[in-house]
Amino acid sequence: MASLTRCPGGSRWATARYTLIQASYWPCYCVIITFASVYLLHQGFRNTEIGIVISVAGVLSALLQPFVSRRADHLRRLALRQFAALLILGQTGLCLLLKCLPGRVPQILLYSGLLVLIQLILPLCSALGMDCLNRGIPLNFGAARGAGSIGFAVFSSLCGTLVLWFGEDVLPLVMLAVTLVLLLAVLTFRFRTPGDGRMSAEGEASAGETTGGAFLLKYRGMAWILLGVVCLFLSHNILNTYAFQIVGPLGGASQEMGNMLFIQSVVELPVLFGFGLLLKRADSRFWVRICGAGFFLHALGELAAPNIPVIYVVQIFEMPGYALFTLASIYWINGIVAPEDRVQGQAYFAMAMTIGAVLAGFLGGFLLDWAGVVSLLAFSTAAGGVGMVLLLVLLRKKRN
Fold this sequence. Notes:
By secondary structure, this protein is an all-alpha fold. It has helices at 14-34, 36-42, 47-73, 80-100, 104-134, 141-166, 171-187, 212-218, 222-241, 243-247, 254-281, 284-304, 308-314, 319-336, 342-370, 373-394. The longest helix is centred in the N-terminal third of the chain and has 31 residues, at 104-134. The protein is globular and about 55 Å long.
């Protein structure tokens, strides 16, 4: 990897500038996704309607991920950062319209657009960091992603306070503010590549474009790996989406749920900030295999937990599960696919995670209503187990 002194264009600040991207993306995600129910309930929508909107937006974003990523992988006139900025600019416009256009139909359509765009932007932000590293510019991806988690936690608390002080109508303004910061961060993420004078984070035309079906045929076994990811995130999202219902039978309420989610955020940080050290111990393929066990043990621990203190302790499995996966999968995909397919590879993983979240919403709610919390947690554990086995088996050899 090139030294800092050989990287013109301010690349010594690459980590700080990429940190700004992550630290503004995840607050955007927090306000738009986490506070969706808060805002839409205020607009007069019922819980059932909100669940349908979130699920449909998730399905739509999953369907669009391969198309958007193929465009990003084969850009001819735009840099990757400029392509990402176009989507963020669209998000900015929707935030403005959300504030200006009242009424059930405009509000639901605009918010659905926000839900889709924020999920489409994620793999592009990941690809920007990987592109920087691929061009020889030093960047601590894990530290930047850790700052994103901190930003998410801070904005979770901040938005709750702002809603308490000013009401739910303040949320579109918060969305607009953090989206503008994200837009500025992405547009200014531009560095010269050492030795060749080109600009990093630039899209380049490829000789041949890999379509969605061809991508899965080109990388054999990828479809089964993606199925494993769907299972892991089905398990993970059940635990988070229905956290309030899970702590209820153990004597918990909203405060205990908040404590549980706070512990999750805290235990993620050592992995995110120390991932560079983990890569010195073993390659990303090894750590992706380990992730499956983390997801499974997290679900199994909550199923077996007899009380709230044990539930708190079980959150430690967020560290080898979700936290480790968020970085290990990005590095692994970046290493195994051809340069012209890297954005598409990131997008397929994002699509699998989105499908897992959508299934968690549909199936989890059904199980909770018809069979109760124990059956819900048993299903989450089974899904985590299937995902764990698939990753352990499919990634057992380096050639895969």
